[in-house]
Write a structure and sequence with these properties.
Organism: Rhizobium aethiopicum
Shape: globular
Number of domains: 1
Radius of gyration: 17 Å
Distance between the termini: 16 Å
CATH class: Alpha Beta
CATH topology: TIM Barrel
Helix content: 40-55%
Bound molecules: pyridoxal-5'-phosphate
Function: Pyridoxal 5'-phosphate (PLP)-binding protein, which is involved in PLP homeostasis.
Number of helices: 9
Structural class: alpha/beta
GO molecular function: pyridoxal phosphate binding
CATH architecture: Alpha-Beta Barrel
Order of helices and strands: HEHEHEHEHEHEHEHEH
CATH superfamily: Alanine racemase
Family: Belongs to the pyridoxal phosphate-binding protein YggS/PROSC family.
Largest sheet: 8 strands, parallel
Protein name: Pyridoxal phosphate homeostasis protein
């Protein structure tokens, strides 16, 4: 299969999962995760109509996306990897959605940069649903308070929650937990599901799925 065929396959599986879950067609957005792939591998995905892309490193993205974005201004770039506060300025300048807000220091840095640059990327809070020590994200029990702090104290609007379930566990309970937290936090967007489990995530209410290897091939 070439990239176009893999992309079509993912799109039709998303559509089938939407139908099976009784959700409206088009209610799940596909974020194509292009990390580690060069611009010449990303171009064909853009040519095939893909517009939402995810990257996990600010610096790597700065090397390939400014040109691609100026050629295709309707591309929307999502930061899905951990963010350090010394990269907040670069992230605000380049990304349209930052999915990995997970602590007060980074939230403050983003608020400051958004004010300074007059740019307002949409923000999601990353939740460490499996409480994995090596993984970024706020603890589930701290999520509602953190979202409230972002909103009330820092004036940030938080659109959604994001999670990466532990690799070796059944992801369903993690997706269910994130959906429950979204209600508690009054956020509408749920970024969950990757190549191996995006259909499950759609069944649990994902509004966007982050799919890399099923589109671009193995990294
Ligand atoms: C790499 C990555 C993905 C995509 O993973 P695949 O298994 O290749 O689909 C999704 N989300 C995050 C946060 C990632 O870092």
């Amino acid at each position: 299969m070439d990239l176009q065929e893999r992309l079509n396959e993912v799109r039709s599986r998303i559509a089938a999962a939407e139908r099976q879950a009784g959700r409206p067609a088009g209610s799940v957005q596909l974020v194509a995760v292009s990390k580690t792939f060069e611009a010449d591998a990303i171009g064909p995905a853009i040519a095939a109509g893909q517009r939402l892309f995810g990257e996990n490193r600010v610096q790597e993205s700065q090397g390939k996306w400014p040109d691609l974005k100026s050629e295709h201004p309707d591309v929307e770039l999502h930061l899905i990897g951990p963010l350090q506060s010394n990269k907040a300025a670069d992230a605000v300048a380049l990304f349209d959605v930052i999915e990995t807000v997970d602590r007060e220091k980074i939230a403050r840095a983003l608020a400051e940069e958004m004010k300074r640059q007059g740019r307002t990327p949409r923000l999601y809070v990353q939740v460490n649903t499996g409480l994995e020590p090596q993984k970024a994200g706020i603890a589930p029990e701290d999520a509602p308070g953190f979202v409230a702090l972002c909103r009330d104290e820092l004036g940030l609007s938080i659109d959604g929650l994001m999670c990466i379930p532990p690799a070796e566990e059944n992801p369903g309970p993690h997706f269910a937990l994130l959906a429950k937290l979204a209600l508690k936090c009054s956020v509408e967007k749920l970024s969950m599901g990757m190549s191996g489990d995006y259909e499950t995530a759609i069944a649990f209410g994902a509004t966007s799925v982050r799919v890399g290897s099923a589109i671009f091939g193995a990294r």
